[in-house]
Design a protein that fits this description.
The chain is of the alpha+beta class. It contains 16 helices and 11 strands.
């Protein structure tokens, strides 16, 4: 495969074997300057001017540190085509904003995600993980690890944090799948002509769910996050109902999809690397921090974020022009040979491990990183102690450019 043999904007590229994806990005990293690709044509957005594919660790760090040059708010960060105006009502969360508006929203919501606050959820996370493993053992081997284990923990924790009742868990799960379903036919993604309608409907219904709850919590507050956000007054600032709805969509989509994929990928890594499983079992708590970081590095649940260049700017010897787009491929940066020795090897003792699985440095570093680390740690601690020989079968991968996801994976133990 030569560099000219593939196109990152071709949706079929993202359905090819993982070994071919690895080879393609290895060749892109070997280029002197970033490759440039034309944008995919979609019905509901104008075709843009194309984008520079930033695939090296150094380029992604530098772009992330310069949000005033590589901005998120002009057209959105979670999509390569510019986000149509009607999408902003549901998906215009702070991940698709720049300062000062981004800083205002993050200041309001960030107090719920500090290490101190996450510590308060620890007992809930442990109880949820224990219950999930109870159910796994009761049902026996042969189940779907993704839907029966990996997806359940982050879904429950986020819904419980927001005060979403258990009867709505399935609703939230299914709608988040639609939003991040990519091109996958299981979630309707094969029909691009109806993609906009599916996305807008899922966004509207999730937003309505939390806005109805918020209206109730405004009059009847409890100790959940929705009550805190709807009644928050930080330096005279409050979230609007639209901002609350968009934040909820970001939270359930980012927090549910990404953590469940990291847990699913982690089991597959342990299955394929029995030496690392044995090492982790020798000291489950001691090796957990390094193992979790290594899982996130290799899983890289979010493949990319997009930026738009606000002014002519030279970075690492390459000139970027005002108005051009740059796509930060975190998945590739986490396999950069110049940073990670033997980058495809799973090594739970890897030090240092400066991965960008939670995004690069700067204002858009993942707000929920502490919570994600805690959930992954607790889930594997419970599995390794109670089901130490559990293995994941061949993964059924999500057909998506944006999410490096696993839809289904049979488990045995």
């Amino acid at each position: 495969m030569s560099v000219l043999d593939f196109d990152l904007s071709d949706r079929d590229f993202w359905a090819r074997p993982m070994s071919e994806r690895e080879e393609a990005f290895e060749r892109l990293r070997a280029l002197r300057t970033p490759a440039f690709f034309q944008e995919m044509e979609i019905d509901f957005a104008p075709r843009g001017p194309g984008y520079h594919a930033l695939v090296k660790h150094a380029d992604i760090l530098e772009a992330s540190r310069n949000p005033e040059v590589f901005c998120s708010g002009d057209g959105g960060a979670t999509n390569i085509p510019d986000m149509p105006a009607e999408f902003a009502e549901y998906f215009g969360s702070m991940i698709n904003m720049d300062d000062p508006r981004h800083a205002r929203l993050r200041r309001i919501v960030s107090r719920a995600f500090t290490p101190k606050m996450i510590k308060q959820f620890e007992a809930d996370v442990e109880a949820a993980a224990a219950g999930i493993v109870d159910d796994l053992l009761a049902k026996g081997p042969g189940g779907d690890f993704v839907t029966e284990v990996a997806a359940r923990l982050p879904l429950k924790i986020i819904c419980d944090m927001m005060g979403i009742p258990e009867r709505d868990y399935r609703f939230v799960f299914e709608h988040s799948n639609v939003i991040l379903g990519g091109f996958d036919p299981e979630y309707g993604g094969a029909d691009l002509t109806q993609l906009a309608e599916r996305l807008l409907t899922a966004g509207m219904e999730l937003q309505q769910l939390v806005q109805d709850l918020a209206a109730h919590r405004a009059e009847n507050p409890t100790d959940d996050l929705t009550s805190s956000l709807v009644n928050a007054n930080i330096d005279g600032e409050r979230l609007t109902m639209q901002e609350l709805g968009s934040f909820f969509i970001l939270l359930v989509v980012a927090g549910n999809e990404t953590t469940r994929n990291a847990i699913s990928y982690g089991l597959r890594l342990l299955t394929n690397n029995p030496d690392q499983r044995a090492l982790w079992l020798e000291d489950i708590d001691g090796h957990a921090p390094g193992a979790v970081e290594e899982i996130v590095r290799l899983a890289s649940p979010v493949n990319f974020m997009r930026r738009k260049v606000t002014r002519d700017h030279e970075m690492n010897g390459h000139l970027y022009r005002k108005g051009e787009k740059a796509v930060l491929f975190y998945w590739s940066a986490n396999r950069d040979e110049s940073v990670f020795a033997d980058p495809h090897r799973f090594d739970i003792t890897r030090q240092p491990n400066p991965h960008v699985g939670f995004g690069g440095p700067g204002p858009h570093f993942c707000l929920g990183a502490h919570l994600a680390r805690r959930e992954i740690t607790v889930m594997f601690r419970e599995l390794l102690r109670r089901v130490p020989r559990i293995e994941g079968g061949r993964p059924d991968r999500l057909h998506s450019m944006f999410i490096n996801g696993i839809k289904h994976m049979e488990c045995d133990f």
